[in-house]
Automatic annotation (TrEMBL):
CDD domains: HTH_ARSR. GO terms for molecular function: DNA binding; DNA-binding transcription factor activity. The gene is arsR_3. Residues 1-95 form the HTH arsR-type domain. Gene3D superfamilies: Winged helix-like DNA-binding domain superfamily/Winged helix DNA-binding domain (1.10.10.10). Signal peptide: none annotated. This is ArsR family transcriptional regulator. It comes from the Bacteria. It comes from Lactococcus termiticola. PANTHER family: ARSENICAL RESISTANCE OPERON REPRESSOR ARSR-RELATED.
């Protein structure tokens, strides 16, 4: 496996190592898609903290955003992210 791929994998797992990002990802997994206001109500973080984490996850290609009027709707960039979260959830429930 190339160093580039290993570096990208490390970046992806680094995203999952942050509890606030995990809260956001799990909320989006549950809802399918969410805007910042919905996330703020769901994960009990400030709007600025949520926006900061969302930007990081967009840069890492974990989330994508759709602009609908004045709102930004966030969802998983692809099904693999949701599947990876589900695998981790299953692993933790079996531990």
């Amino acid at each position: 496996m190339s160093e580039t791929v290993i570096s990208q994998m490390s970046e992806l797992f680094g995203v999952f190592s942050n509890p606030n990002r995990l809260k956001i990802l799990l909320a989006i997994k549950e809802a399918g898609e969410m805007n910042v206001s919905q996330l703020e109500a769901s994960v009990s973080l400030s709007q600025s903290a949520i926006s900061h984490q969302l930007a990081s996850m967009r840069e890492s290609r974990i989330l994508k955003v759709e602009i609908a009027g004045k709102q930004r709707i966030y969802r998983f960039a692809d099904k693999h992210i949701e599947e990876l979260l589900e695998i981790v959830i299953q692993h933790m429930s079996e531990a």
